[in-house]
Every structure is written in C-alpha cells, then in structure tokens.
Design brief:
single chain, alpha+beta, Uridine Diphospho-n-acetylenolpyruvylglucosamine Reductase, domain 3, 5-stranded antiparallel beta sheet, 4-stranded antiparallel beta sheet, 12 strands
C-alpha cells in the first residue's frame, strides 16, 4: 500500500517555523539528494515533508560588512559559479564544484550537505578551514554556532528538533588570504571523497605566514582541523622546504586520527594518499602568494 505523505510548501520563514512548531515529526527537504535516498532505503519514513526551496528568502549569496553570507538553500552549482565566492572564499567554490555530478550540484544544497553530516561532506571540509558559522533558527529564536562546534563526537550535528539551518557565514578573504581545496576520489565523475584537504593561509611580506587553517575530510566521522600542521606554518616563511615538512606531518596526523576510528584498515592507504593531495594544496597557495 502506498503511504500518504503530507507536503507543505511555506512561502516564507515565518510560515516555515510555524509549520514545524505546530506539527510533530516533520521532515525538511531541500534538494532531496540525501533524503529521497534515505526514504527509498526505508531509513526514514516521514508523515510530513516541508519544502525549504519554496522559501525564497533562504536562497542568496551576498557580502555584508566583510562577511560572506549564504542562504541554506543555495545549491552547490550556485556557489561554485558565484564570482563573489570564487574571489572571497575560493576553497568553498572548489569544494562545491567537486560534489557529485551536474544534476546533483543543481539540486543539492549547502544546508542539506551540512545537516546530513556525512564524513564525506565536501562543503563542510572547506567551511571548517574558512572558520565559518551557521545560523540555526526556530519560532523560539536563533543561535549562531561555529562549524567547528556543530558536529557531535559520535556523528550527526547539534541541531534541535524545531531548528532550521538558515545561513552560513564566513569572513571574506582579504587580498593576502589564500584558500584552496583539493579532493581525491576514485573516479572523475560522481566521486564520493576518499580524502580532501583545504587550507586557508594569510601570507604577509616576504611570504611570511601570519595564519593558517587546514582541514582534512573523510578521515573521521566529520572533517577535522589539522592544528598540529597549522603550527608548522604560522610565524614562518612559506617555503617549499617548509611545505615538505608539513606534508610529512599531514601524513602522521592522518594515521593517528584514523587509528582512533573504526577505519584503521585505511591507514596505510590514506597516509600515502594525503601526501599528494596536501602537496597540491600547499604548493597552489605558495605559487599564488609568490605571484602576488
Ligand atoms: C549520486 C550522489 C553523489 C553525491 N556526491 C557527493 C559529493 O561528491 N560530495 C558531497 O559532499 N555530497 C555528495 N552527495 C550527497 C548530497 O548530494 C549532498 O549532501 C547535498 O548537499 C544534500 O543537500 P540536499 O539539499 O539534497 O539535502 P536533502 O536531501 O534535501 O536533505 C538532507 C538532510 O538534511 C536536512 N536538511 C536539509 N536542509 C536543511 C536545513 N536548511 N536545515 C535543517 N535541516 C535540513 C533534511 O531534513 C535531510 O535530513 C551525493 C549524493 C548523491 C545521490
């Protein structure tokens, strides 16, 4: 027997929050690229689905006072093609461009990518290095949470039942801040990440590294910051020699992190794989800073 599902398409945020507040057990849908698969696999069986894409005020990419703000229903394609994001947070545009296929990028949203909380969520790896925050809203109010504090240790994210992720924000990259994302997947098209590296570095006079934020995707239940490697860059000149040292540290950190997870069997593969991906990212930033 086919199950009937109630479907709501609110026109604005107020209506959205009221529907969620007044109904028990609502399921939000944005692009549906994760949710529909979960329904088909019978992992979830919603009675009520609420469409986020009908809420037009949730779809934007803009800059306000040096902050890049992205509405939750912006698709991977919109972000990858945005001139603003390419200029002010290149790593995020690169991460969104690497997601799935054209069809998936046209449907899938950045909000859905974050809330689905997969270890392989490409946008999250980039947002972590960009030190982004998310806005969580409900009828009761709103709270802003840094993406680094959003993930729970055992998997999933810290999101209350009534809350909707409405906005993602991060500081726009100034002229001397360089960011870069590289993903390693097994296939060119539709590749789910095997591993990704994002770096955001502030490079001053004489290639002096003032600040570095580095994240690695797909070695834990969620993307992680490689703080021990960041320390190797900050306060030193960004040089090819320094990059070689840091690549070794990335490999050690990857092995140590995987050792604490159920994915220990991947250590020998990923500790080698990370070296090539890290080199591509760090050298890209090195040559961009050099050309400046
Ligand atoms: C073939 C294929 C390839 C893929 N490749 C990649 C890839 O390379 N990289 C990658 O990172 N992902 C990939 N994905 C996963 C998926 O496309 C992304 O995670 C996508 O961004 C999810 O967004 P969505 O809008 O489709 O989410 P939906 O499926 O609509 O929702 C996902 C979950 O998030 C909740 N949700 C959605 N938006 C919000 C919100 N604003 N607030 C609160 N809850 C919300 C929903 O209730 C649901 O539980 C792939 C998926 C497929 C099917």
């Amino acid at each position: 027997m086919i199950k009937e599902i109630e479907f709501y398409a609110p026109a604005n945020k107020k209506e959205l929050f009221e529907i969620i507040h007044n109904n028990r057990d609502t399921h939000l849908i944005a692009g549906g690229t994760d949710l529909i698969i979960n329904i088909n696999k019978k992992k979830v069986s919603p009675d009520i689905i609420v469409n986020l894409k009908s809420v037009e005020e949730l779809n934007y990419i803009k800059e306000e006072g040096g902050i890049i703000k992205i509405g939750a229903t912006a698709t991977h394609s919109q972000i990858a093609d945005s001139l603003l994001v390419k200029e002010e947070g290149l790593a995020l545009a690169q991460a969104c461009k690497s997601v799935g296929s054209t069809q998936i990028r046209n449907l899938g949203t950045i909000g859905g990518n974050i809330v689905n909380a997969s270890p392989a969520a490409d946008s999250v790896a980039a947002l972590l290095a960009l030190d982004a925050s998310v806005l969580l809203e409900s009828l009761e109010g709103k709270r802003k949470v840094r993406i680094s504090d959003l993930h729970k240790h055992a998997g999933g994210i810290d999101l209350n039942k009534d809350e909707v992720l409405t906005e993602i924000s991060f500081k726009s990259n100034k002229k001397n801040i360089f960011s870069y994302f590289v993903k390693f997947g097994l296939r060119e098209a539709l590749a789910i990440v095997e591993l990704s590296v994002t770096a955001v570095m502030e490079i001053g006079e004489n290639n002096f590294c003032k600040d570095a934020k580095i994240s690695i995707g797909a070695i834990e239940r969620h993307p992680v910051r490689a703080r021990c490697v960041e320390k190797k860059f900050v306060g030193k000149q960004l040089s090819l020699e320094n990059i070689e040292d840091s690549i070794e540290k990335m490999s050690e950190f990857t092995a140590e992190t995987l050792f604490k997870t159920p994915f220990k069997d991947l250590i020998s593969y990923k500790k080698q794989c990370i070296k090539g991906v890290s080199r591509e990212v760090f050298e890209a930033i090195y040559y961009k800073a050099f050309q400046k």
